[in-house]
Amino acid sequence: MRFSKLFVPTTKEAPKDAVLPSHIYLVRGGFISQIGSGIYNFLPLGKLVLDRIRSIVKEELDRAGAQEVQLGFVTPASLWEESGRYQKFGKELLRFKDRKNNEFVLGPTHEEAMVDLVRNRVKSYKALPLNLYQINTKFRDEARPRYGLLRGREFLMKDGYSFHADEEDMKREFALMEQTYSKILDRLGLDFRVVEADSGAIGGSGSRELMVLADNGEDDIVICSNESCGYAANIEAAKSLNEGIVDDEVEMTPGLFATPDIKTIEDLADFFKIPASYLVKAVAKKAIYDDREEVVLFFVRGDDELQEVKAQNACGALELVDTDESELEAVGLIAGFIGPMEIKVPFYVDERLRDREPMICGGNQKDYHFVGFSFKDKAFEYADLASAKAGDQCVKCGCELEITKGIEVGHIFQLGDGYSKALNATFLDQNGKAQPFIMGTYGIGVSRLVAVVIEQHHDEKGCKWTWESAPYHFDIIISNIKDEEQSAFGEALYQQMSEAGMRVILDDRSERFGFKMGDFELIGFPYAVIVGKGLKEGTVELVDRATLQKRSVPKDEIFQQLKEL
Ligand code: ATP
Ligand code: MG
User: Fold this and answer.
1) Could you list the residue range(s) of the whole structural domain that residue 275 is in?
2) Predicted confidence band at 371 (pLDDT cuts at 50, 70, 90)?
3) How far is CA 175 from CA 25, 266, 414, 436, in A?
4) How far apart are CA 518 and CA 512, in angstroms?
């Protein structure tokens, strides 16, 4: 490709709402442009990167024995009604009607559609296992589309679904997909972790996420500091141990104690001169269900924070939202003074409070706390509710946990038979008996990965594409296009490299050298060959974009050296 012909509108201006490097550089480097909120066009260079990632994903999946299909992006709502998700999925699901008043959705994920493809077509255990995938557009009407390609509304995902005769075979495939996804990320040159995850709205039991480590990641991940242990989990699912400060000396005479206007954990700890691990924190939320809304309480230890996803899983709500003092008053609760005694709303208690005594909790009376509360033998509903913190102990090995930031790029689920049962998709087993398929499902964000490569590989000048993600590997920059010798050498090298099948672009524009160099740094091809003044002495310069180091190479050796790269 010649730069002079390439449609690559690079600019100095970043979009107003862009805060992350990947968003800024992908727009400035002429890879993508926004056409609507959370909707992006891919320009030639962006499309090249997207296609490279797509083909790596395809190669690795095909090698693992999965088969590519393509499902309709527009999905009949009736399939979503069969699974029960039409109501449950919430506002991310874009629903619409056609001219005949039939209802449809824009597929945010395709469990229903894939089960529908397979049911009544795969009839016997002999045709199993089967792993089908597509690399196709998804639409999710995200509440806050942002960060460019990282959280779009329209995006490209590889979604795969596997069908098995039993649990054990599904688990084998799940492990194979974990390996396959890891290989894809390795090839893309990404530093990542596979972490235990929450299963979210898709349902199912075991699930893992592939997290690329990045300071700007939206997800908190908990990692064991003991490398040989390897425990890693999304904070939404992370388990941890922490006794909190326990002092044998502490004694309390049970009873109400006046605590005028003292509501926060901090003020209480000060007031009683006691560590926060002796206090009980009450967090009130409004839980939204299919058919009702109600105030729900969660109790955690004073030195812990409530993890909202765990809380939502505990009560089974579709969503938890904030509540206010008046809503609390309506159910007889006084904000700042809530304790787990004689309350009329549903409540859940964190495991770390089980059997704990003596504790201080709200007195359920204005300006009173209850001192000396005991959780011993209380038949409360206990659940894992507290968020893991840096410094907590690992549940596997007891070593200290650390917290770091990640971007989720892939999510693999052991789905089980939830969808096949709901959609009545069965096969005949060895005894001729109809059984629902046991399923796994596997997603990887292809367009998100374009941005993720840049989040992990950039500097203050622009992008640094990794070898397998790069739109072109080599950028031959003719320093002065009017210099005939430079032009001729650049052209000849370009021809030679193209014929050798190397991915090369020739910067043959009649622009200043500095401008062309700036584009190289912003766009981020892995290497540049500068054909400039040195040519008179028989040399060209080779620039490594990753380090920006330059070295002079004899012009007769440059082709061979580039080939070796
Ligand atoms: P997130 O937690 O980031 O919202 P998710 O859990 O909803 O993602 P999945 O349903 O597991 O995502 O989808 C599989 C993959 O699709 C994700 O790992 C991610 O790479 C990609 N993906 C999901 N939502 C988006 C989005 N809004 N924009 C771009 N890629 C996305
Ligand atoms: Mg997910």
Assistant:
1) 255-383
2) very high
3) 36, 46, 10, 21
4) 10
